[in-house]
Design brief:
Layout lengths: L1 H32 L15 E4 L5 E5 L3 E2 L9 H11 L11 H14 L9 H10 L6 H17 L2 H11 L6 E2 L1 H9 L8 H9 L13 H17 L5 H9 L16 H15 L9 E4 L3 H21 L7 E2 L5 H12 L8 E8 L4 E5 L4 E4 L10 E3 L2 E2 L14 E8 L2 E5 L5 E7 L6 E5 L11 H4 L9 H10 L7 E4 L4 E3 L4 E3 L10 E4 H6 L3 H11 L1 H8 L24 H12 L10 E5 L5 E4 L31 H17 L14 E6 L5 E7 L4 E7 L10 H4 L1 H11 L14 E6 L15 E6 L39
Parallel strand pairs: 1-5, 3-4
Antiparallel strand pairs: 1-2, 5-20, 6-12, 7-8, 7-12, 8-9, 10-11, 12-13, 14-15, 14-24, 16-19, 17-18, 20-21, 22-23, 23-24, 25-26
Helix pairs in contact: 2-8, 2-9, 4-5, 4-6, 8-9, 9-10, 12-22, 15-17, 15-18, 15-20
Amino acid sequence: MNYFLQLVKKITIFSLVAAGAFTVAVLYYMEFQLPDIDALNTVQLQVPLQILTSDGKLIAEYGEKRRIPIPFNQIPKPLINAVLATEDQRYFQHPGIDIPGLARASILLIATGRKEQGGSTITMQVARSFYLTRHKTFGRKLREILLALKIDHKLSKQKILELYLNKIFLGNRAYGVAAAAQIYYGKQLSDLSIDEYAMLAGLPKAPSTLNPLANPVAAKKRRDHVLARMRELNYIDEKTYKTALAAPLNASYHDLQTQVKAPYAAELVRQQLEQMYGDTIYTDGFNVYTTVDSRLQDFANQAVHNNLLAYDARHGYRGPERNLGVPNLNHMQEWEKTLSNIPTVNGLEPAVVVDMTEKTATVLRSNGKLVTISWQGLAWARRQINADYLGRMPHKASDVLQLGDLVRITPVGQEWRLAQVPKAEAGFVVLNPTNGAILALVGGFDYQHSNFNRITNANRQPGSSFKPFIYSAALDQGYTLATVINDAPIVVENPTDNSLWRPQNDEKRFYGPTRLRVGLIHSLNLVSIRLLEQITTSYAVSFAQRFGFTPAQLPPTLSLALGTASVTPLQMATGYTVFANGGFKVVPFAIDSIRSSQGQVLYQAKPLTACNNCQTPTAGANTPPDNTHAPRAISAQNAFLITSALHDVIQMGTAERAQSLKRNDLSGKTGTTQNQVDAWFIGYNPNYVALAWMGFDQPQSLHEYGNKAALPMWMEFMQYALKDKPDHPAEQPPGIVSIKIDPLTGKRAAPNDPVAQFEYFMTPYVPDEDKAASAPAATQPNKNNNVGGGSNTTGQEGGIY
């Protein structure tokens, strides 16, 4: 007996020593071999890139995973209860592992020989999702258990549950419960009902196959199981339980709802971010605040949409996209499916004509509904015979449509209107002239239809909208707005092929001696060409670089006076900011700040700003760096004189229809290129520079001038952008005087001259009493300032119209 007791004692001592050694080994392994879990306190979950307006409205989101991390105190209690009831009911009692659960899983393994998932706690799932693979091996399971114990020891239960609910995959690109609430219900997490919380809580078991979109029957069964568990554990009462059981499955896919439509701006920003940070932008949860003003962006979107449709309607109806045949009941479902696969283009919805009366047409929409288009919505559709000619006006619906026509429709108030996707394109950009911030950007009619950004990437000829830069160069050489230039025929020989270029004004008229102000107001081509000839093209090309243009874009020929440069609309708008801000060169930018998902500022834009009351260096090769103020491109006096002349373009020139805006602080210039291929209007006041452009991607004639195709777009934008804002005319800088002149000769007027007009002058160039404000002793015309082109080529725009 004594021997037996001594043996038991030895075995017990050995067992205790072995157990102690094993425990020490486990603790050593946990401490030194397992990953350091302190990083979980500051873990960076994969969060998509969000691009927002300057006022915090969502423009776009980029990233494979949709996730909206939320802290534990913002997770609704009913959802926590639903998750715990289903996944880990003893979560707040166990030390990270559930011994009874592991025991059940072990017994099942011994009984069946199968390795099941059972026994995993929420803490173990966190350990697996952050540190381990999903391969079911004994080694991985042991590491999972040890990691769970370590995590539970180091982190609070609330932090672990927060990590779990933000990390877990819940199907359909949803990672975390907040993203799942948005995707399945289109709601904030706090706005869900008990049955919806139960649905989300049931998803972790099999998110791809049990979600309500993939398998509604299995999803409802799983939801009801969660509700039953919640009732068993008294998380909900009987009434709530029965009400939730009876609730229908109301889940549906909710795509990301952006708050502002600015896809071209979003893509511009995304490309810049990728250059700055690489692919990490899609996972690191950057919140990028752009310079885009949501209010101005909405106005710009509407202006482009309305005016492209108006232009398209003026040029006739091109007919249906195709005909699907004679409608009958058997076709309806098939056509509905066809329509559902055709994208809506900027509000222009596909539809099929299924019935007509003499003055109406009934069409089938993709949602299966029928709508009737009244004669008011059809009467515009005069058939387009070719680009130059429209057929007779329609008198009945059958003059426009046939049964089975696949067409486009758009809502107008409470009615529907026949429409068509425009073939022409348009662009619009708004800049803050003080610092170059892009306040609104529309790169085309519809981003999904064409993602080519015409504002930043299209190289087009600016036509007469380029003339202010030529006139500014002349003012820099001592010319004045009263300088008289002869608007008379000119013939230039092209030495490359001996052809002759005979530019003309638009009206095929010549106006004789003309002051520069009048020449710019009415966009007279011959005045501009002769002016460029006098200041020389080499000087004009050099001078234009002050506005941001490059020599490669500017032909060193007299045609430059008519805008034959090749520039982007953004460059043109940037050039006009120099006139609007008093003579400073600013750089356009779209990113204001970048913040991490924790709110830390990673980047803050510090643009150079225009400051008329500051001492700033003049732009040039030897200009010292200035980290605050934009460099001066032209004098304040030069900018004021050009602004004054462009103000008169609106008051009495090519853009006089803009007088309907009833403002006294607007200046601008129309532009139309050869054969009316491009139409422009660029206008501004001290607060905004806004550019409207219209043309075809494959150049062809618009058959309209800039004051008809582009100016109304600009006017519609300005009407809303400046509503209730006071006039803000440009301030007259020192060094400018106003003197009465004879409007015909440009000479200083006699004291009692009844037709005398006031004109502004820089003080060094005020005309003497007996001298006209003629051209300065100019350089001799450059004999090589010739241009290419045929012998009868006409000039761009020009003329009083």
